[in-house]
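Bench log, entry 3. Co-assembly request; chain sequences pasted below exactly as received.
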Amino acid sequence: MDTHGRRLSRRDLLRGTVAAGAGGALGIGAGAGWLSREAGVATAQRATSGTLQVAWDQVQDNLDPQTARGNRNWWVLTELYDTLTYLPGYSLEAKPLLAESWAVTGNGTVYTFKLRRGIKFTTGSDLTAEAVKYSIDRMQATKLGPLFLTVAFDRAEVVDRGTVRFVLKYPYAAWPVILSHPAVCSIVDPKVVESHGGVQERKRNDYLSANTAGISPWLIDRWDQGQRIVLVRNPQYWRGWNGQHLNRVVLETVPEQETRLLRLEKGDVDIATVNAANLPGLEQRIARGRLPVAIEKTKNGQALLSLSTMQINMNNKILPTSDVNVRKGLSHAFNYNLFIGKVLNGYAVRMAGMIPRGILGHVADYPLVDFDLNKAKQAFDAAAPAAKAELAKGLTFRYVPGYVLGQEGALMWQQDLAKIGIRLSLQEIDQATLSGMQTSVPGVPLIEGRWVGDFPDPDNFVTAARPDYWPPNGFGAAFAGDARTDSLVQRGRMEQDPARRRAIYRDLEVYFRDQYPIIMVAEPSGVLNEWNARANWVAGFEFNPMFHPLYYNAFKQG
Amino acid sequence: MAELARPLRNPLVLFGGAVIAALFLVAALAPVLAPYGPQAGSLLDRFQAPGPRHWFGTDSSGFDVFSRVLYGARPAIGSGLIVLAISTSVGTAVGLAAGYGAGAWGEVLLRTTDVFLAFPGLLLAMAVVAAVQQRTLWAIVVAISIRWWAPYARIVTAQTLSIREREYVEAARSIGARHLRVLVSHILPNALSPIIVQATLDLGAIILTTAALSFIGFGAEPGAPDWGRMVADGRQYMRDQWWVVLFPGLAIFFAVAAFNLAGDGARDAFDPRLRSE
Amino acid sequence: MIAYLTRRLAMLVVVVFGAMTVTFVIARVIPTNVAQIWAGVQGFKVTPDVIALVKREYHLDDPLLVQYGYYLRDVASGRWGTSPVTGRPVAADILAYLPNTVELAAAGLALAVIVSVPIGIVAARARNSPLDHLSRALALVGVAAPTFWVGLLLQLVFYYMLGWARDPGGMLSSSVLATAPVRHVTGMLVLDAAMTGNGAALADTLNHLALPAVSLALPLVALVSRMTRASMLEVLHQDYVRTARAKGVPEWRVTWRHALRNAMLPTVTVLGLSTGWLLTGSVVTELIFYWPGVGRYAVGAVTSFDFPAVTAYTALAAVIFSLANLLTDLTYAYLDPRIRFG
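Structure output for the full assembly:
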């Protein structure tokens, strides 16, 4: 060892430097951590502050109400734009919001809405019938929004300054609730749109995508794209702020499951979305009394309705899945109960049809496809030669990790199909590509899909059976409808008597199911397979599977 | 040859060598050594904690993690060797041409090498993967090789340049030896040792890059036993099922560490000038 | 010196140009209907005329050379195109994310230097002692442990179990954002917080920066500490050092004045070359810690086949890398008198 035995050992000096250097690194972190914890918000303090911290995995990219697509944008848009009607609490029935009342005439085809007086936009202009007409016409004119929601819509008319009338092509009882959907009729201030480019077909409005021009309890305080949106209270909001309310809502994007979970457990967020895989562990810890967290799962003892379904779309128009026997075989090869039991941890039921539980027309007593590899093999053997030849080349299943089935569901299916000699290869894609594939022709043989209701009417759920829903004009991916389903859908839409409606939809479901057009996997009890885990000090948070303003009524109590 | 003895007496180098040998053995004999197949198991065995039946536990699909770790040696070593094979051959060829060829050609080749050296390996690989829109292991291998030949070209060029001027080369040329012969019998053998040293060290780096790419999502297909992918898949369950993330990561660590230790030894053996001791 | 400088700059231009060409070639020579994917992504219904629109906008049907021309023109004029996936200009996105990566890289580099140089010196001085072996073990861990794995473990241990670090996921806690937002000066939060005297935010950002910086720095620590040790060892046995000692120069002076300066040469080289690692490592680190930097942006772009973004990012990386190499060479030239005056 190199030593020269001097007194003040240079080694000590050097060691000291090392200690300073190495320790400094972690020291900076730890010290700052300690400091932030002192200076930061301790749990008790957090409980009573006026800021709600939400962690979810949605990334917004467009806040222009009439051109934005996707739930990720619509959930934020409901907070930023009041609509004529809304869904209060857990209810699925529309109640007036910006409207005072409405009347239905013309045998269900004419809806006349009376607007509330004295309401102003955040920009200062008055709410008028012209603004309402402008708003609903804008979506039709730009053609970028979900036009399938407004197929019944014919035109809007201004009766007078405070009254607007909607004329529909046929009687449609779901119209009031459709009006509460953020894409259909978020009321924007026409002056703002006109002064920033006006209505342009197929172009989204850059100003509106990042700013608000509506009537809302919240204003955008800041939006760090891809990171977080911070909403701050609008003091001029017409409903006022008496009683208990929040000052500020922070919607933070945290795509990683485990990070959301850790932060919820440490108390750094108030609400986090948790998926089925992590629920059991979380519930155990809650049951042991170690976490002040509640999971939104039941209401009045009943499981919450999610009005969402998970499925696998099989392309009914291209080989080999155009052959009904191939589809039958694939359907019998999916182990539904194992998937629901083990991957969804039991937080789901079998998808029994396009129409989920809680919606008129849900069919609960028709036998479900069972998992039976023998039946699957028989079905494959019965397929036409052309389909068999195509099948022999192997099938590709495309899915997005973490979206619907996940890797576990896909691998399970692949394994089981291999047992009967069918080669399924898996291809992971991202959500952008998935959307692209789902909106193009001729499509792919197998692709996963899910459906979250846009409005609580059967008509919204039977889209898989609607030919007008297919690309290039629509958004389907199974190409599964035909003339018969089309006529049933139309009749169901226009029928006003609930009992007759039920019969029509039953016919539709049974006919549809007998063709095995899609693989109906599960109906999770959490929307999009996510549950809201909420700290105990958050109150007034009303879950609703449909879009509705979540945060106006929420508050925090110690 | 006496110089080889020294590093071989270093316990660390020996350890590295032993681990490498074990790795190759495992990669070759995985089906024999692993208690289960890489995808043997069903959801019924999902998330078993490490125990007597499953030493490293099971993952989200019910597959045995220990077996998957063993099988994972295959893509790791395999892709590493293939990348090395491609990189060293292409790099050597280019390097020889650049160093030996006079004038413009040499310059062009040198600059091309520099251009490719200007990309960090991961980034170029990502771009290539995006371009070919294939997320398979083969695509990764090619993508990584596209950048990885450049350092070898540089090494060989330097060697070629320095040896080219040596007397015995001049002598060989003067008695009429053809260029190719000179290249192969005189220049190449001398370039070999730094290549070997670099290659041994690189194998570790390649394994890390492949793992990183797999982790990001470009690489192994779903279900395949690939260490990087296993960490990525297990990430979301890290809170309660830590074993799915811990063991594959340890495997990567030990493999790369072994190659590094052995690489140090190789460096000591072949090129005492570069010794760090 | 001037001649050297000019030559290097010329080479830099050539290399960058070549890098951009390579990137372009990769992005264009592809068999595919990206137009369809891009059209679908933005929510357009994919009709043939929409696809045609997209193809026109991105010149996808023009001959390769023409496309190359457009590419060069756009890059030179700073218009790096519009991302077909997000609909926003690529340049704006990259400029928004770049400061965060720079901040992370700088922190990682600084941490690496602060930690590894002393370690290297001590290991050299106390050669073959337990301390030396410990440093060697640390180096091995740094170089062999995959960054993504280390990052995950750090999160688990330091955030969840020990609670020392603040919640991972981003650069600033939302609570601090609400109470003490940082005024934008440079775009780099730590710098801005320091410059505007925002103590709470400074502590918070440093805390958020700690774990990612450690993940990023670990391999560098390995490399630099070994490098420093090796060059210190080499230098400590040189003649002029022995002469200095023989002349009675105190030991610490020997170390600092004579040995260190020359030992730093290879270290500086290594540091410069580590830019490549910083660019690479930041991609993975940003993914693990959800850091809003260009690395994470690039991965998203690659996953969704966003070619304008990918080419912009690759070209940028090549430029940064080449510049760093140039700077390193220049610093080396400055430090090494043989080059300076030779």
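The CA atoms of residues 333 and 339 of chain C lie 5 Å apart. The first helix of chain C runs from residue 2 to 28.
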